[in-house]
Amino acid sequence: MRDQPLLSARGLTRFYGTGCVSCPENTGPAAATNRCSACGTIVACAEVSFDLYPDETIGIVGESGSGKSTVVRLLHFDIEPSAGSLSVTIPHGAGRQSGNGQVHVQHLLDGTADVFGATAFERRMIRNTFMGIVYQNAAAGLRMQVSAGGNVAERLIAGGWRSVGAMRDRAAWLLDKTEIPLERMDELPRNFSGGMQQRVQIAKALSNSPVVLLLDEVTTGLDLSVQARVLDVIRSLQREFRLALIVVSHDLGVIRLLTSRTMVMKHGRVIETGLTDQILEDPQHPYTQLLVSSQL
Amino acid sequence: MSEHISTETNQLGSAGYNYAFIDEGAKREIRRKLLKAVAIPGYQVPFASRELPIARGWGTGGLQITLSLIGPEDVLKVIDQGCDGSVNAVNIRNFVSRVAQVPTTTDTSQATLIQTRHRIPEEWMSQDQILILQVPIPESLRTVEASERETRRMHAEGDYTRLWLYLYEDIVRFGEISIGARYPVMVNRRYIMDPSPIPRWDVPKLHQSDVLFLFGAGREKRLYAIPPHTDVQPLEFDDVPFRTEDFAGKCCARCGAEDAYLDEIVLENGQRSYLCSDTGRCDKNARCKELE
After folding, report:
1. How far does the CA of residue B238 sit from the closest CA of chain A (Å)?
2. A166 to chain B: which residues are within 8 Å by CB?
3. B83 tagged catalytic
């Protein structure tokens, strides 16, 4: 028997605008747009459903504007869904560095509740206790006016840590794991290179020992050698921490390297899902075929 | 009535004004908001701050609380940075005693209402007294968040991570928390509150006190309160405990007090001398010394 999924998303939908009855047929791959011609609503993503199992890595691939980042931001509760549900199954005691955060939300973690219906406080507790996120733009995930160590400490504070020494020890350990020189721990991340900023973000995302790590275009904008180092760090941490990953990228190389299953998105809809190897070797949907064939 | 209370009240200039200057409707609103503030310790209650004959930001919040609570049987004390004789304290005292015809005092134990700026008196205060603090910036989260909408959300959800992060960064940079006055406190284990710019020395006096503390910010239009016997904890880390100013080995040059918050005075010869910041108690101590 298979494990219960950690995350189970059903019908994730997010639109910007008033919405109307004809939005579903006016948008999507068939209509080749995500803007409804009747009411002008932008359908960022619609009817996205998937299950994420423990230790598993799912990739979301698609062109710019296909709604892949919206999905990740919905899962991280950065934005609220227009429709859809998310259930979370996390056994008691799984939040390893979480302080007392799990106590407040344990009743939501049996896989039956829709956590989008939880209070803002409860959603924040779930996020702070079980989730980590790395954004494409380091400025979105880091506080540039706070030291690298402070950035890592932030989630620990949110999880109820109140010992400066213990937080500094953990921040130092994580920054070491992500190959940040410790003598730069108390420096502001704005003094760091793009690759270093990205690795500080990863250290921050891992500070609370998350169960699910969300990676949103982590290597985009980094040069190739730095990309390779960041991906190496992610791969070794994935094994070490037994993370479930959701990797968003338009780079099929990243998807091939990190993921076992992949969803292909276009105009806010999922057009193809399957094993990553299968999708890359034998793409079925014309768009996926185009994507695979146009890889350099 | 004690000899230290001045019973001389000034009747001049109050003709044509309501008792205690502001109108009864305004007083009723302020009292109602104060009741709400007392019911939710540490929560900032918005109120309609009235125009007064002094500029906003010069104690109008405290003054409106004083004027809406005061009655002819009250005895008023007004202090500014602990001092009864500074210009602000004297002017506010003269104004209130004129419009409310109340006696005034400099003796903390004799006063029923004490309006103060930046200090809490050193002397123990009883449940029959009310301490009214003037507040310039009621929002302790303003340091880390400029948006009022966002700070309200943070209070509502108890999301205080960013303030704690600010304290953490302070420790990393300076070895300890560098906040002098306005040290943030947790009230009743629920709301983080700005205790007004009192020195750290006064922060422990807020905890489980017998006296009712009322806070008024006239410019920012907020009232809040700490009712008697409420838990008030300064924010501190397990391994970096809160500490107050240290006056070990120093005493007041006038009254000899060793247990008071001291002002440092640089003398003409460059040497340093110390005087009590709380002049009311210093006077009392000095009189006792003379009698001995």
Report:
1. 5
2. 239
3. no
Contacts of A148 in chain B (CB under 8 A): none
Say if the Cβ atoms of A150 and B172 lie within 8 Å. Answer: yes
Q: Is B255 a catalytic residue?
A: yes
Q: Whole-angstrom Cα distance, residue B253 to residue B286?
A: 10
Four-point Cα dihedral B179, B182, B184, B189, nearest 10: 150
Both tokens of residue B47?
A: 């109120």
- What domains does chain B contain, in order, with CATH numbers? 24-139+188-232 (3.40.50.11310), 142-185 (no CATH), 246-292 (2.30.170)
Question: Annotated catalytic residue: which of B255, B270, B280, B288?
Answer: B255
- ipTM over cut 0.90: no
Locus of tokens 């004809």: A22
User: Which residue in B has a C-alpha nearest to residue A152's C-alpha?
Assistant: B165
For chain A, the residues whose C-beta falls within 8 A of a C-beta of chain B are: 120-121, 124, 143, 146-147, 149-150, 153-154, 157-158, 162-168, 186
Show me where the domains of chain A are located.
7-131+211-293
Fold (topology level) of A7-131+211-293: Rossmann fold (3.40.50)
**pLDDT tens column, A165-193:** 999 999 999 998 888 899 999 999 999 98
Residues B97-146 have pLDDT tens digits of: 999 999 999 999 999 999 999 999 999 999 999 999 999 999 999 999 99
